[in-house]
Design goal:
This protein is an alpha/beta fold. The protein has 13 helices and 11 strands. The strands form 3 sheets. A 7-stranded mixed β-sheet has the order 1-2-9-6-5-3-4, sandwiched between helices. It is globular and about 55 Å long.
Length: about 325
C-alpha cells in the first residue's frame, strides 16, 4: 500500500483490492450516496458492501453524465434522500463520474464531503486527483469548482483488469507526467513499452500530480504545467469526440512541435515514444478551423492570447502565450 497526500486536505491510497477503510473517519456522517455508471455498477455494489451501507445513483456513461440535466436529477435525488452537510458522496467510475461527483459535492449545500474510487487508468492518475471538478457547457469543463475529495482510493487490481483500450487512454496522462516532471516514468515505458508495470508508473504519476497540486491548489501558477498537451488536445477532443487520453497524446505532439521551434526540444523522440506505445499522434482530416475555434475558447487563454505548456527539455517546462504562426506549426505536426 502507498499513501500520497495533497497538502492536508486529500489522502490518496494506492493498493490492490478494496480495503475496509475506504471512508475517512468523521463524525456526523449519516448517509453515503454512491454515484456510478452502468459499466461499473458491479464494482460500485462491491464498494457499498465494503463500506457497509450506501445507496446508488446511476448516471449515463462517459461524458453524457456531465450535463446540467444529470446534475439537476442528482440534486433532486439528494433532496429526496435528505442528504445533509455531514454526509458523503462517493464517486465510483472513470473521469466523467469523478468530475461529476466532485462538482455535485462542491455545490450541494455549498459543499459536502466527496470520496472517489476511480475505475479507469485515466481517472486514477488524473481526473480523480487534484480537486478539479466540472461539467461540460459550451465547451469541456467550462463550469466547475475546485473541491478536493477527502480520499481517493486507487485499486491496482481494477486497473490491471482493464481492456487495452482503456489502459491506453490513461497511458497518455502518465507519459505526460513523465515529460513534465519525472523522466523515470519515461524510462519505464521505453524499457517495457505498453507492458510497463502499473505498480511503478501509477504511483509515480500520482506523486507528480500531488506534488504540483500541493504547491498550487487553484492553478494560479505552477499547476498549469499539468495542462501539457491539453490546449490543442481539448480542441481535437471536442471536434472529433475521441477519448480524452488519445486527444492529449495528439496535443502533446502539437505542443512538442511548437517546443521544438521555440526551444529546440527533441519532439521527434517524444512522438516516437507515444507512437510506439500505440497512442495516436495525428488527427488528419479534422477541421482546422473547428479546432482553432475550440482552442480560442480554452480556459487557459489570457489577455496575451492562447497560453500553452511547452518544454525546453524533459522536466523543464514553460507556460507561455503562443503566436498564430506557432499554432500553425503545432497543427501541421498533427496533420491538420
Amino acid at each position: 500500500m502507498a499513501r500520497v497526500m495533497i497538502g492536508d486536505v486529500c489522502e490518496i491510497v494506492i493498493e490492490r483490492g478494496l480495503s475496509a477503510d475506504l471512508l475517512p473517519e468523521r463524525s456526523g456522517r449519516e448517509q453515503v450516496v454512491v454515484i456510478t455508471q452502468a459499466p461499473v455498477r458491479d464494482h460500485a455494489e462491491r464498494v457499498v458492501e465494503a463500506i457497509g451501507d450506501g445507496s446508488i445513483i446511476e448516471v449515463p456513461d462517459r461524458d453524457r453524465a456531465k450535463t446540467w440535466d444529470v446534475v439537476r436529477d442528482i440534486y433532486d435525488e439528494l433532496a429526496e434522500r435528505n442528504v445533509g452537510r455531514g454526509d458523503t458522496l462517493l464517486g465510483v467510475g472513470g473521469g466523467a463520474v469523478t468530475d461529476l461527483t466532485g462538482f455535485v459535492a462542491a455545490t450541494w449545500l455549498r459543499g459536502i464531503e466527496s470520496v472517489l474510487v476511480p475505475t479507469t487508468l485515466l481517472g486514477a492518475v488524473d481526473a480523480a486527483i487534484g480537486g478539479k471538478t466540472g461539467i461540460n457547457h459550451a465547451g469541456k469543463n467550462l463550469v466547475g469548482a475546485f473541491w478536493h475529495p477527502s480520499r481517493v482510493h486507487v485499486d491496482l487490481d481494477v486497473l490491471d483488469a482493464l481492456d487495452e483500450r482503456l489502459k491506453l487512454e490513461g497511458t497518455a496522462e502518465i507519459v505526460k507526467a513523465g515529460f513534465i516532471a519525472d523522466p523515470r516514468i519515461l524510462g519505464e515505458y521505453r524499457a517495457r513499452g505498453a507492458a510497463a508495470h502499473l505498480d511503478v508508473v501509477v504511483p509515480a504519476a500520482i506523486a507528480v500530480k500531488a506534488e504540483v497540486v500541493s504547491s498550487d491548489f487553484r492553478e494560479g501558477g505552477r499547476r498549469a504545467i499539468l495542462n501539457f498537451g491539453h490546449t490543442i488536445g481539448h480542441g481535437v477532443e471536442a471536434v472529433t469526440g475521441m477519448p480524452h487520453g488519445f486527444a492529449v497524446s495528439i496535443g502533446m505532439v502539437a505542443a512538442g512541435a511548437i517546443s521544438a521551434v521555440r526551444f529546440g526540444f527533441d519532439s521527434a523522440a517524444m512522438t516516437e515514444l507515444l507512437f510506439g506505445l500505440g497512442l495516436p499522434v495525428a488527427a488528419a482530416g479534422t477541421s482546422r478551423q473547428a479546432v482553432l475555434e475550440k482552442v480560442a475558447r480554452d480556459k487557459k487563454r489570457t489577455s496575451d492570447g492562447i497560453r500553452m505548456v511547452l518544454l525546453r527539455s524533459v522536466g523543464d517546462v514553460e507556460v507561455t502565450p503562443v503566436t498564430a504562426d506557432e499554432l500553425d506549426v503545432g497543427l501541421a505536426a498533427i496533420g491538420i
